[in-house]
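hey so u asked for the seq, here:
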Amino acid sequence: MEQDLSYEGSRSDLKPSRKKPFYRVSGGLRKYLRHYGRETRVPVSYNDLLHFAGSIPLYDSSGNDLLWETVYYEPSDMRELYPALALVYAQLKTEGDTSFLKNLSVARIDYCVFGNSKPFRIRIVNNLNDNYDHFYVKVADASRIYGLELEHILSPNRITYFTDGNTLIEEHIAGIPGDTFIRNHLEDTPFNQTRIAKEFIKFNERCFIRLLGDMRSYNYVVDITPDFEGSQFRLRTIDFDQQSFDGRLDMYRPRCFHENQAFMELSQRYLKAESIKQYQQEERALIVNRLRSSRYRLKELLDPMVREELAPPEKRRQLAGELAAFYGNAAFLQCATMGEIVKLHLKQTLRKILKKIHEDERPFSDYHRK
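ran it, structure tokens below
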């Protein structure tokens, strides 16, 4: 069944659950993380960063509150904490090569008081040229880790992160925040709006297929790559907390959020229905190609996921019911976990392409006999 891309007006009431609990990393998921090099020892934990002495609000250049606070620590804590954070950055970026650590320093530590995960953002500066980079320290929530891995396997984007106990270390994903892009750049003439519309359709498809929710405009960034004619665009998720957690189907379709209405209107203005279906199919085919090359890894990820309950039972039942009605497939009603729903949904949405590939790959003798 193809998605209906008609926009049915503003849906400002479409909000995620306010308090999503953290889900423990199970033994099965931990085994997967160790096998694929995602688990490593780090010299600082999320809990260590919570012991700050004070904080001040962080504002942008226009004086707007960014909903982050810059935190500071006692001098004795800083002497231990800052070198340890520089070492974590080396582990994240250079496989632990410490030869250049003397050139790195921590410029700032920010704490996000808004949202579910309450992450710390670490700014690292290269003292030789004042160039800076960021990384994040968060609680190792199982549903977020599944979201990161599904992004790494099924999307065009590679994700660098690792865990240690209850601590999750993530790289910074560069780009213009979606809400800032809509507000300041959407009507810029240098940007090709047809290409932007196309990318929004493909982004909507990626999120829907793997059931990643809450893609409001501030939960993704726009990555712009200059091309020999114009620019290319990619929408990249930066928030994975709502991986298959909500019970409402529309939560997994970015086009349904009021905050993304400008992108949806752009798609309707510049793209015909036939083009929209083409771009949906293109994205599904790309996902299938990635799945084929990483099918064993995906299976090893889904094996523990289907055994875990990553959402309250009522949300799982609601989503199963809405998907069963949407596709006319009662098999969703038999899913006992959100992991089972994700697995079945991948099969449901990609079945046609997978079937065609299997037919195309039949031995020549099969065609000869036929």
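The chain is about 40% helix and 15% strand. Residues 5-10, 364-370 have pLDDT under 50 and may be disordered.
lmk if thats what u needed
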